[in-house]
Amino acid sequence: MLKIENLHASIEGKKILNGISLEINPGEIHAIMGPNGSGKSTLASVLAGREEYEVLEGKVTFAGQDLLEMGPEERAQAGLFLAFQYPVEIPGVSNTNFLKTAVNEVRKSRGQEPLDAVAFLKLMKEKMKVVNIDQSLMTRSLNEGFSGGEKKRNEIFQMAMLEPTLSILDETDSGLDIDALKVVANGVNTLKNDHNGFIVVTHYQRLLNYIVPDFVHVLYKGKIVKSGTKELAYELEEKGYDWIKKEIEGA
Ligand code: ADP
Ligand code: MG
Ligand code: MG
């Protein structure tokens, strides 16, 4: 589904990613962990197609297409979902209208008929249950004045509505509370099936108490320096990242 080969990227002339290779198949959950500043958010941003980042080398294939040649909207239409792509605040556009447009854009690109008002409402109700999101957030302007937890819940709600084939969730290091973590985990666990995949970027192991990854990768200085199963995440929780740094630098 996603194949990253020897990806190098920089921001503002600073080299951040130094040769990342990673392959994700349908039905898999991959966790990307690593110390602060190792390039986790940069990797997510490059995959999202954020313009500030320059790809210097490498190749990324998504569902058989050259991802790096696609604009951010095309990536979304092809079934890629990036959580932080949407938490922008858009005054004057209600959450509901935003989602209706987004859902129908994706349907159009899949060759499906747009949903009419009744069908859309039915889908919203069904997905609202998954995320346990408050009805009142639907009529408010997109993300405007939402609390951190509400934004996160809304983001996962968007993911549920769009039914992407690959979701990339950057949990950022800036302390999601336990309720927000559970919302993310519950969303992933409910939406996971044999046809979709998830990349969960996380600094701490605690999210992985709720989402069980199939693979765990450790990013350090812009490279994947270790890959393993969920046991690796437990080891990191117990021992921190220093032993990995020593192992790499000693080698
Ligand atoms: P992580 O998500 O693993 O904590 P990031 O991808 O956010 O790491 O950052 C990787 C490195 O890139 C850090 O050293 C950070 O300071 C640097 N960086 C991120 N954004 C910028 C920017 N806009 N300009 C210059 N350096 C940046
Ligand atoms: Mg960071
Ligand atoms: Mg980060």
CATH 4th-level superfamily: P-loop containing nucleotide triphosphate hydrolases
Largest beta-sheet details: 6 strands, mixed
CATH topology: Rossmann fold
CATH architecture: 3-Layer(aba) Sandwich
Give the end-to-end Cα distance, rounded to a whole number of Å. Answer: 33 Å
How would you spell out the order of helices and strands?
EEEHEEHEEHHHEHEHEEEHH
Ligands and ions found: adenosine-5'-diphosphate, magnesium ion
Strand line-up across the major sheet:
6-9-10-3-11-12
Number of domains: 1
Give the DSSP E fraction (strand runs of 2 or more residues): 25-35%
Shape: globular
Please give the CATH class.
Answer: Alpha Beta
Query: How many helical elements?
Result: 9
Number of strands: 12
Mean pLDDT over the full residue set: 88
Helix content: 25-40%
What Rg, in angstroms, do the CA atoms define? 18 Å
Contiguous low-pLDDT stretches (5 residues minimum) are: none
Structural class: alpha/beta
